[in-house]
Amino acid sequence: MYLLLIVAAFIAVFPLVWVISSSFKTSHELAQNPLQLFSSSPTLEHYRKVIQEIGFLTNLKNSLLIAGCSTVIAVVVSMLGAYGIVRFFPRVGRQLTKILIGTYMFPPILLAIPYTITMVKLGLMNSYIGLIIAYLSFSIPYAIWMLIGFFQTVPIGVEEAAAVDGASRFRVFWQISVPIILPGIVATAVYTFINTFNEFLYALLFITESDRMPVAVGLYSLQGSEVLDWGAMMAASVIVIVPSVVFFMIIQRHISGGLSEGSVK
């Protein structure tokens, strides 16, 4: 069993290790022996080119801003929406969740033209706000669907006990229910952040200025018409991967712990 787990872990990690190691290879090594795992003469030339010449850090800043705002707004709105459905509309909750998840039946490409027409009429093309609104339109429904299941696990008796002690409805929500489902909120935030950080289609359609492009479009723009700079591509890919990994490492402890935090008077 351990041998199988080691093999599975190696298969899962090897592509990431290869990308990172390739970003430190020289252009000659990438052309002559791309399968070589480690470079005989590591270089930071590709990172210098991506950061200084191409300005990829600007794309990274744009993605962090867009994904961060989308995540915060989606999580806050979804928490309130899911809690309201579970506590105030329990009978229609099941049907409503089916409608919410039904929005994912349509592939993003079908909504590209209506979204583009709407953004043009609202004057939100080539703006962060327009892209964030587009992301919220498909992030919030799925986040609500996820959080409904978590709020349903909160014992109603705990909330009633807090209400008897004089706690308001909002205080019960914020100090009792939210800490209990904190792992679910974190999981929802992780999903929303990664989904918006890596989104490509709407970012390509709505953003045309290079200094406003997120990393997904910036990475795509590195592809030349005839020649592909693999070194720059690998270095940019590492820069794209790092924020998601760091974000997950920061909040991963909240996913596995704190299931019953806030339930003790």
Automatic annotation (TrEMBL):
Gene3D superfamilies: MetI-like. Residues 60-251 form the ABC transmembrane type-1 domain. Belongs to the binding-protein-dependent transport system permease family. Its main location: membrane. This is ABC transporter, permease protein. InterPro entries: BP-dep_ABC_trans_perm, MetI-like, MetI-like_sf. It comes from Actinomyces johnsonii F0542. The keyword Iron-sulfur does not apply. It is a multi-pass membrane protein. One of its GO terms (cellular component) is plasma membrane. It is found in: Cell membrane. The keyword ATP-binding does not apply. Keywords: Cell membrane, Membrane, Transmembrane, Transmembrane helix, Transport. The chain crosses the membrane at residues 64-86, 98-117, 129-151, 172-194, 230-251. GO terms for biological process: transmembrane transport. It holds the Pfam family BPD_transp_1.
